Amino acid sequence: MNEILRLFPAHVSQIIKEQVGDRWNKLQEIRLRLFKPIELNFNDSIEWIKHVEFATDERNFVLNQLSEHSLYRLETELKEGFITVAGGHRVGLAGKVTTTENHVKGLQFITSFNIRVAQQIIGIAEPLIHHLYDESNYCHTLIIGAPQSGKTTLLRDITRLISNGHQVIPAKKVAIIDERSEIAAAKNGVSQFDIGSRTDVMDACPKAVGMMMMIRSMSPEIVVVDEIGKQEDVQALLDVFHAGVTIICTVHGSSLTDVKKRLSLQQLFSESIFNRYILLSTDRKGRFIYEVYDKHNELLATVREQL
Fold first, then answer.
1. Is the separation of the CB atoms in 274 and 138 below 8 Å?
2. Which of 75, 163, 238, 287 is the most exposed place for a label (fewest CB within 10 A)?
3. Number of domains forming the structure of the chain
4. Which domain, by its residues, includes 153?
5. Is 98 helix (H, G, I), strand (E, B) or coil?
6. In terms of Cα–Cα distance, which of 87, 28, 32, 38 is closest to 63?
7. Which of 40, 23, 21 lies closest to 31, judged by CA?
């Protein structure tokens, strides 16, 4: 977790390291709020570092580390409200928004940070991968879940299994369009996660553009994208579908019914693109629950994982 610890001054980094201990695989978020204690969110609990106040000097240090001492370099990211750092970790930002003609121009006076810890959990997709395969090919699959429900972690392991092959299922050529550098966490173009031996990555590229670039250049059998939602994403997914390439993607939502109500996604459902859905949630014990449904909304499998 050196990619995260380097964001903090040495004294704060040491305190966080000591409190987390050997629980990095259970840590979901580090939340920083100006003039308040540091909050640690684990899979099953919330803890505070109450004797450390996140003061202005610490805030400025974190910003300098994120921007490499040049906030101008982060102009695009500041408009989006988040920054992806090495290791695939995403840092959300909040503060005063500046606008031009009702469009976000950037963030000023940043007062809150949400460091979302990226995890690779090898094998998490194994109990459900065969439910995504139908006779001779993988199914067009939509993974649905709320923030922090494990969508990207699951998507990453599904990609690894498809790319390597699993049991009697042969390996497939996979293309990841990694707009936010979270799935593969590429550094200088090289993935920092195990995403399989037959996977190619288009890093830091808008999804809609990247999908068609990969179709033309890398002849994938499977296209993988994270967090669809914009109208241009939907049109690109339709183009991928009509090109005969299998789609596996994620979307924010609490249920399939909820997702189907989103206007920007309705064409995907009107053309019956997906024949598998994976719904992600958590129970009271902090376990992650994966439910696999077919295109008729019939439940195929339920998997519970204690991460």
1. no
2. 75
3. 2
4. 126-305
5. strand
6. 32
7. 40
Could you report how far apart the first and last alpha carbons of the chain are, in Å?
17
Shared-domain flag, residues 97 and 155: no
Q: Do 89 and 131 have their domain in common?
A: no
Fill in the amino acid letter for 73.
R
Q: Are residues 156 and 276 in the same domain?
A: yes
Share of the chain above pLDDT 90, in %: 67
Shared domain for 141 and 276, answered yes or no, is yes
**Main-chain dihedrals φ then ψ at residue 26, nearest 5 degrees:** -105, -5
Cα dihedral 188, 189, 194, 199 in deg (nearest 10): -170
Residue 306: predicted pLDDT: 64
Tens-digit pLDDT profile for residues 21-48: 999 988 999 999 999 999 999 988 899 9
Residue 248: how many other CB atoms lie within 10 Å: 25
The pLDDT value recorded for residue 181 is: 85
Q: DSSP character for 169?
A: B
Whether residue 121 is contained in a domain is answered as no
Taking the C-alpha atoms of residue 187 and residue 203, their distance in angstroms, rounded to an integer, is 9
Q: How many helices (H) and strands (E) does the chain have?
A: 10, 16
Q: From its phi and psi, is residue 135 left (phi > 0), alpha (psi between -120 and 50) or beta?
A: left
Q: Report the distance separating Cα 289 and Cα 306, nearest Å.
A: 9
The residue-averaged pLDDT of 113-142 equals: 93
